[in-house]
Amino acid sequence: MPVFGINQLIFLLQGAEWTIVLSLLAFLFGGIAAFVVALARISANRLIRTVSSVYVQLIQGTPLMVLMLVCYFGFIVIGLDVPALVGATIAMTLYVSAFLGEVWRGCLESIPKTQWEASDCLGHSRSQRMAYIILPQAVRISIPPTVTFMVQIVKNTSLASIIGFVELTQAGKIVNNSTFQPFICFVFVAVIYFALCYPLSIWGNRLERTFHASRR
């Protein structure tokens, strides 16, 4: 029976690399979609606000694991055989767009009403007001919670193992099945997750302290 050794650790690290890849893809595509969702949620058009609200409630009310299964096996139903990475990326994109979109909506709405009114007094159009007045302030506010949310993205990539994507958690399962040493195996998995998430947590806390200090 194989024992847990350097080869197994290397395999776990390779799984961690795919965890990082999926996290980056989810944040990139999910961030773009989240920005659209945030703007739609504060749109002057009632229909757009309603549709975006329903979308957010639908995605937030659906477990991410179920999204993974629907996105991956949905392609199979229509006759498309896509890699697990594609299905996982789509599911994570939907997840990030709904939750991060709401975070950013809150940041936009946290800008004092006087800023919006002052922009109107200057004769700015809605797009100019958003680009020159509101967004620069909202971006500054959104940085700490966004960095903190990135930790959740990294940890939630573990659910991609349900569709066979070999990220860190799935790599841990494979190693455990070959060594039958679950404690040692998943301790290393936990340590690697901690090594990925802890720097982001520290960075988010520092940004939050910096942000609050700069507002005093």
The class by helix and strand makeup works out as mainly alpha
Termini gap:
62 Å
Residue fraction in strands: under 5%
Counted up, domains total 1
Spell out the CATH superfamily. Answer: MetI-like
Mean pLDDT: 89
In angstroms, what is the radius of gyration? 21 Å
Per CATH, the class reads Mainly Alpha
Largest sheet: none
Q: How many helical stretches?
A: 8
Q: What is the helix/strand order?
A: HHHHHHHH
Structure description:
- The structure is a single chain.
- The protein is an all-alpha fold.
- It has a single domain, classed as MetI-like (MetI-like fold, Orthogonal Bundle).
- Helix content is about 80%, strand content about 0%.
- The protein is built from eight helices and no strands.
- The chain has helices at about 5-40, 45-60, 65-75, 85-110, 115-120, 125-155, 170-180, 180-215.
- α1 (about 5-40) packs antiparallel against α7 (about 170-180), α6 packs antiparallel against α8 (about 180-215) and α7 packs antiparallel against α8.
- It starts with 5 loop residues before the first helix and ends with a helix.
- About 30% of the residues are buried.
- The model has no long low-confidence stretch (mean pLDDT about 90).
